[in-house]
Design brief:
Elements lengths: L1 E9 L4 H18 L3 E7 L8 E8 L2 H13 L1 H10 L6 E9 L9
Length: 108
Amino acid sequence: MIVELRTYHCAPGRLPALHERFTSATLGFFEKYGIKQIGFWTNLTGPTNQSLTYLLQWENLAERETKWNAFQSDPEWIAKRAASEAQAIIVERIENQFLAPTVYSALR
């Protein structure tokens, strides 16, 4: 098992639009493609409160590549993402990391 840590840094004031896109569209596509989310978080303290961090669980990188690429190339997803950004861009920058649990991790 590996965990993907993703952080979306939003354009100023656009975090609510990102929340809306996840609840109304993205999570449905995650379900459609079998993408398993562990959880989502926003910052209470730190340099910004305009970011969303979430974790995805994968069996391996090959599974991630197959499912993520299918999701990203889905024409309906592409249309919904474009519509959500018709007014203004939502995410300015994305960071992601792939994490492997240690032998003493509660999540393995």
